[in-house]
Amino acid sequence: MINMSLKNKLLLFALLPVVVIFFSLMAITYNIESNNLERNITSFKDKLILDRKTMLKEEIEIGVQIVVYQRSLGEQGDVKAALRNVHFGKSGYFFIYDEQGISIFHGASADREGNNYLGMTDANGKKVVVGLLRAARSGDGIFSYHNDKPGGNGLVEKIGYGEMIPGTDWLIGTGAYVDDIEAEVSEYRDVITQNMQDKAITILIIVLIIVFLITVAVLFIAQRMVHPIRNMVTNLEDIAKGEGDLTKRLHIEGHDEIAQLGRAFNLFVDKLQGIIKDVANVTQEVKSGADNINSQTQVMAEQLASHNNETDQVVTAITEMSATANEVALNTSQVAEATLAA
Hints:
- By secondary structure, the chain is of the alpha+beta class.
- Helix content is 68%, strand content 10%.
- The chain folds into 2 domains: 6-195, 2-Layer Sandwich (Beta-Lactamase); 245-342.
- It contains 5 helices and 5 strands, in the order H-H-E-E-H-E-E-E-H-H.
């Protein structure tokens, strides 16, 4: 991260919170939606079961009215004949047991009539007739058990509903399998799950669009922020290499920190340009002074050379005069000696 450019850092700092918030919201939303899904499925299943129980209760009320009416006819009434052809749903029928568990009527199998089924149990050991009698006496009427469904595969849960017929010790009941409810619940689960997935995809698309817009905005802003900084870097590199154009200035807009930095850079270059101009002027003056000194030195050297020549000539003349004087002295000495000898 240290080696990242400023633009990439700005992009990272802008997108990282968005991504973190997005995944956090997705996790929270998924958890909430999952909990809501289970609650909705449970509520949906409970509603279907309640509707099924209500339907069974309404059917039993019809059956009770039929039995009461047929019994009110006396010898002309025939409860079994009246109930025999009454069917509802795919396989719904009535059955009647007395309190001793003897089958009075069975809409699906007349062969069962007259037999005692008080001890009949389902695969889980529940006594079916006993349970229905207890439920009917309590007023609730609902008793669930498992039974082999005709044409089905294995045991299926069945909701039984029973009600005591007024003026008798008879229990009239019916039942309904709930495997179709499980199928509806499974279909409902698939629909809700698909809706949740569609919602998640929609949220993901929206977030991706937001991320794209943020990326474009950050890149645009970063470009405006980085551009003057890059210009400063380029100018400073030119100055460091000795090839900088100190007449160039940064174009400043706004009053933010970047603009303040640009103004400070322009002020620095102004002062640097002034210092370099002063140094150049002083250098020119020093060069001019050095040239003058050099010229004067050359003149003095020429004068010294001339003086040296003149001195050499004087020395030569003196030497010649000295030689002449010596010769004169010698001649004088010889003349004197000759005079003395004469």
